[in-house]
Amino acid sequence: MYDYISGKKSSLQPDHIVLDVNGVGYLLHISLHTHAQLREDENPRLYTHLYVREDQMELYGFSTEFERSLFRLLISVSGIGTNTARLICSSLSPEEIRAGILSENVVIFKNVKGIGAKTAQRIILDLKDKVLKDYGQGDATELLTPSDHEMEEAFNALVALGFQRPKIRKALKRVVTESDQENSTENLIKLALKIMT
Fold it and tell me: Structure pTM?
């Protein structure tokens, strides 16, 4: 029904935005990822998804068509509703979602609140071929939370220290490709910190 809505930002909250379009206020549910993109934009354009139930209509807004398309893929998975899909989009960037599906990284989805192992596996099983078809293989290693225990622990420790995920991924990628030291959790964290600080 709606492809996108452009308007003046009337109010912005972590979970929704109200856009004033010629005197009409549209309330759009958003992810934290989209929220971060909208802080400085007074007249944003949001790509929309209209979700209709018997007793309710909800409008969702996304800062990019890519995020919207991933949201639509997620809600096509059995057991994933709009709230859970939005939570995934809030916890992971669109690039992390894509890479997590392509690299079959169950852990990254299990780390999202409310997602268990079976649901995480179902997301990957149901969506891998679709994501591969629509977006190509790309760099599925860019997520840099591989299955090996040391890398996963290092990534999570650096997140807990307050560093941004994209910055952590770049630093860990450099450590893995450039360092000849043992890839223990302690060394990974220490070397990544040297790069980021």
Answer: 0.69
